[in-house]
Amino acid sequence: xxxxxHVTKKYYTLTALDNVSxxxxxxxxxxxxxxxxxxxxxxxKLVAGVISPTKGxxxxxxxxxxxxxxxxxxxxxxxxxKVGQYLDLVAGVSDVPASERERVxxxxxxxxxxxxxxxxxIAHISKGMxxxxxxxxxxxxxxxxLLLDEPSNGxxxxxxxxxxxYIRELNDLGKTIVLSSHHLHEVTQVCTYLVILNKGQIHxxxxxxxxxxxxxxxxxxxxxxxKEAADFLRSLHPDISIEGDTVFLKNNAMxxxxxxxxxxxxxxxxxxxxxxKRVTLSEIYAETVQ
Amino acid sequence: MIGRIWQLSxxxxxxxxxxxxxxxxxxxxxxxxxxxxPPGQGTPDAENYILIIAAFGAAMTFLVTLSxxxxxxxxxxxxxxARLPSRVEYLTAVFTASLLFSLLLQFVVAALALIRGPExxxxxxxxxxxxxxxxxxxxxxxxxxASDLVASGWSRVVIYGTLAILLxxxxxxxxxxxxxxxxxxxxxxxxxxxQFDSIAELIGHVTSWLSGTGESFFRxxxxxxxxxxxAIGQAIITGYFTPMEALAPSVLILYAAILYLIAADLFAxxxxxxxx
Lengths: 290, 276
Prior knowledge:
A: four-stranded antiparallel β-sheet; B: mainly alpha
């Protein structure tokens, strides 16, 4: 949908993004992960057109440039307006016909569960409502591309789950979504494509299903420390590792699971638990960022 | 496009009107009327009426534009900018809102001043709005260039610096000409002494031109930029526009158009670092 080609963004001497090339795939929920200062918000602002790249270019395969619903990280709104008035302004700017505005505003408020707040002043609504208002304004005009910068930041767990549910619903409607977040669980649940940024560069990029399906391993827990058997077990295959009372079988060593179990039983260990696991997003993130 | 611009313009007019600053502008308008055109004081003449209201309009337009541009430069508007197909629409909305709000205040003063004001023929009265509006258009753009919303890098310094040089240059043109004259004379003498006669003669021609028509030439070059203002002032004082003077408001609009193009280019290409 939108492609960034060798994009660099510098703020005076600080390089916020360094030679980043990325395609935002149509119909996907792209999760942007990275530590503070990695360049997530800069990337969002570049796609939103709020700032321009120092080098490189951003192009859109679908002409014309799509309408973009942008929810910035900071929850800043004109506090003197009521929720409904603000959404009416956004609807007007998004070319929603005057005759349909009331219906569209009501629909979007209902979608984010804020129907009762239409007549409340923005100054008086809670942080959770501000987050949801950010989503509601981003949805105005039915934009095909949504840029959501930390949409669940500062919300309680219930609110985070709710926001995640909205995002999945929107993706089901065919929206392309770029989501920046520090909540790994949320990204795992919601995103279909994963990009990890660090120090202005893309360090990891993959489809979420592939990323989480990679590198499965088997974990065998026994009833006592494996000290005396550790060297012998390690010598069977380089992908076998031992930690305390647990044997890890990775990659090709997983084929040896029956043999290892038999050996452990013969060595008078009791097998407490055998688990087949996959790598988690937090492990991918930790490895990438380190 | 027009719908989007109008929606944003209405929002900024409403936002300013309902703010404390908007109230100050409205009260200031009535105070201005009460001080300059008190109904009990008798009638101002037509020339003063047009000039004073033009000056009021220009000052009010500058302040209103700065206020609206500052509001438009708040980070809360970032989602709105991201939705627009072109940033120039946003700039046009700020421009329209500023111009409409200040024109409204100006016309309030103009209407109130007619209470026991000058007895003006309709033809004379119709001369005023083109003068006011053309001046306000130019001032709106100048104020946008002074605002953080549009200014980018050294643009503010370049535009206002050029204006200052043109203004100051007019006052010092005689001294500058004298300095150039003495420099050229010395250079000419130097080249004669070095026996570069052809160069010395060439410089001698420049020197004689400077001592003759040079000063008036420089003066007219510098003053051509400000000619529309002089022409309008002259026409108001004499009570009628010559065919040449009648072009002055159009020239002001031309200046405004050129400066608007520069503003649009600056605004479209700058990084929007809006105030949080």
